[in-house]
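Contributing new complexes? Match this layout with nicotinamide-adenine-dinucleotide.
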Amino acid sequence: MGKVVVTGGTGYIGSHTIVDLLEHDFEVVSIDNCSRSEPQIIDRIEEITGQKIINHQIDLCDLAATKKVFDSLDNVIGVIHFAAFKTVPESVEKPLLYFHNNLVSLINVLKCIEQNDIPNFVFSSSCSVYGNVEQLPVTEKTPFGKAECPYARTKQMGEEMIRDFAVANPHSTNILLRYFNPVGAHDSALIGELQRANPNNLVPVITQTAAGIIEQMKVFGKDYDTRDGTCIRDYIHVMDIANAHTKALQYSIDGKNKTNCEVFNLGTGKGVTVLEAINSFEKVSREKLNYIMTDRRPGDIEAIYANNDYAKQELGWSPDRDINIMMDTAWRWELGLKERPI
Ligand SMILES: NC(=O)c1ccc[n+]([C@@H]2O[C@H](COP(=O)([O-])OP(=O)(O)OC[C@H]3O[C@@H](n4cnc5c(N)ncnc54)[C@H](O)[C@@H]3O)[C@@H](O)[C@H]2O)c1
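Output block (do not edit by hand):
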């Protein structure tokens, strides 16, 4: 099907996407400096797929090193750019680190795409570009809101940079994928989201609490104007997100794009409350979670979920793994890490 460069290929979403690309007969080359991941993820991908993968362990902020890798590759049909830092509180503490890493790496990748005439580009964006939305569900036409943190600003700026790049490079095809809340793991439980100390996101907090790494989890806010008083998010299984990349790339290769810079929301379109997520976890894992209800956490928005009609209609994509599958795979990944740590 063609050779694809995946940046951030040893990361959470990148590794799952490599598996999906290989299953759809693409050839993959990964670039990841493993600053936020582990090189052994490549072995795990090989174990799942039975195929050999090369990861170039270089920093994409280093233009010379990045050029060297791109110049060594021929017939590249597309680039999927995942590599970035993504931790919201860290971005508030270290905005310059985020601007440097996320934007310089993007500029360097775009320079290599331009110089090597690579026709298709897919960028990892985020629903955080919408800020604190008032109207739900969120469509691709919902305007950017105020960026709530420097991380979100890097996604807004990244998108704007790509839009300008698309104007200057009319023969390039660019796709911006705005993820809602990716969770879960590959069904084999060999790859998943690498666990960090003090996670901020709900699902790692749930699995780490059940595993005894976190003593007691806090549910922030019980008086939101939602069906059970807790916040609503659009959780989406990482393999469904991964498959959207393969479909987006194929869509571009097939020339089905309407313009040379298109945006797609990737969510299930269904909001799930924190308590519903906890109930689902307890059901599939048969574990009782130790949690308490506490006050709202500053900065949390009440509810956000996607309208995903455009991705379904144009890409022929449909996210079909429900919250129980998300929780089951996340839990088996957590348990697997105990037996076979990375
Ligand atoms: N996971 C989410 O909740 C989420 C939501 C919305 C958007 N996104 C975006 O999706 C992308 C992938 O996210 P993820 O969850 O897989 O994150 P991740 O941290 O697991 O993966 C990112 C990978 O990029 C690599 N990387 C970072 N900077 C690099 C650099 N300068 N040079 C080379 N490699 C570098 C890291 O080592 C890591 O393996 C990111 O752009 C992120 O902002 C993620």
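Reviewers usually confirm one structural detail per submission. For this one: The chain is about 40% helix and 15% strand.
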